Amino acid sequence: MANLKEIRSRIASVSSTMQITSAMKMVSAAKLKKAQDAILAMKPYAYKLKQLLEHLSSALGDESQYSPRKGEAKKVLIVVITSNRGLCGAFNSNVIKKALELEQTAYKGKEVQFYAIGKKGNDVLKKTDRVYKVETEVFDNVSFNKVTPLAEELMQLYVTSTFDEIVLVYNSFKNAATQIITDEIFLPVQPAPSENGVQIDYIYEPSQEEIVAELIPRSLKTQLFKALRDSVASEHGARMTAMHKATDNATELIGQLKLTYNKARQATITGEIIEIVGGSEALA
After folding, report:
1. What per-residue confidence (pLDDT) applies to 23?
2. Rounded to 5°, angle at Cα 61 from 55 and 64
3. 58 pLDDT more than 70
4. pLDDT of 230-282, one tens digit each?
5. Backbone dihedral region for residue 161 (phi beyond 0: left; psi -120 to 50: alpha; all else: beta)
6. pLDDT at 194
7. Which DSSP string corresponds to 181-210?
8. Which of 216, 227, 262, 283 has the fewest CB within 10 Å, making it most exposed?
9. Could you give the CA distance from residue 15 to residue 4 in angstroms, rounded to a whole number?
């Protein structure tokens, strides 16, 4: 059995860790509220804009530079959205695992590269030697203006045929305890499925060309912005949950250590009493 000094040292160490995890949990909870409100307010708008984009793409056919190209996609860019910080459970590892799984299944046999948004994704993916680029500063303050250059860069990579398909892989926010691993095609713009054989069309004002020039880029920027906001909210939720579990585990471990400490202390006292009694009898 460990001596009393070692047990006291472990109790102090675990107590210190518990204070840190408890503080991190409260910080993440505060950040989650703001991030959750932002993504929940944005999702209906982003969904409707994406729906319009899909129907618009169906009406345009091959006329748009963002429409699917003829032939099979050979060069694929997987945009992996992770975080810059850890201590959030399986938040980052699940995204990385999904990206590598896509490479081996849906895009097997194709030339696949990764665009790592977030330090944690790059830390793992750089070992594959297929990281096209790394972006970490966007998480300093996620805003539409800050995401716009990143979205424009991805659009340019498709327009210039650097890549034939661009896919986003990220955590979609459901609630504080649940994040859904999501993979969706960013480019080319996918046409909307027909409903009962009927394709929805729109009346364009001022003209179809002007609407296309404005709506498609804005929709793509919004789609990427939503994905990043989803990831940020999911990160805070995952970290809050992870720190809550860590705090609970630390509390339980401290209880076990205190029990062990009391048993060891009782054993020490009993041993000392036996020595005293034995010495007294020897003198008698």
Report:
1. 93
2. 95
3. no
4. 999 999 999 999 999 999 999 999 999 999 888 888 888 887 788 787 777 77
5. left
6. 59
7. EEEEEEESPPPPPPBTTB------SS-HHH
8. 283
9. 16
Give Cα 225 to chain centroid, integer Å. 14
Half-sphere exposure of 98 (CA within 13 A, CB side): 21
Give which of 126, 71, 73 is closest to 96, Cα–Cα: 126
Q: Give the CA angle between residues 90, 94, 95 to the nearest 5°.
A: 125
User: Rounded distance, CA 227 to CA 43, Å?
Assistant: 10
CB burial readout 81-92, b (16+ within 10 A) else e: bbbbeeebbebb
Element (H, E) at 51: helix 4-60
Output Rg (C-alpha) for the chain, integer angstroms.
28
How far, in Å, are 145, 164, 204, 212, 251 from residue 200 at the CA level? 32, 27, 13, 16, 58
Return the pLDDT at 196.
56
Place of tokens 């009782």: 266
Q: Is the peptide bond before 206 cis (omega within 30 degrees of 0)?
A: yes
- 88 catalytically annotated: yes
Structure tokens at 78: 């997987």
Q: What is the DSSP letter of 85?
A: -
| 242 neighbors 177 (Cβ within 8 angstroms) | no
Residue 197 in 3-state DSSP? coil
Rounded CA separation 148/259 (Å) = 57
Catalytic, out of 77, 78, 88, 238: 88
How much is the pLDDT for 233?
Answer: 93
| Pairing outcome for strands 131-135 and 111-117 | parallel
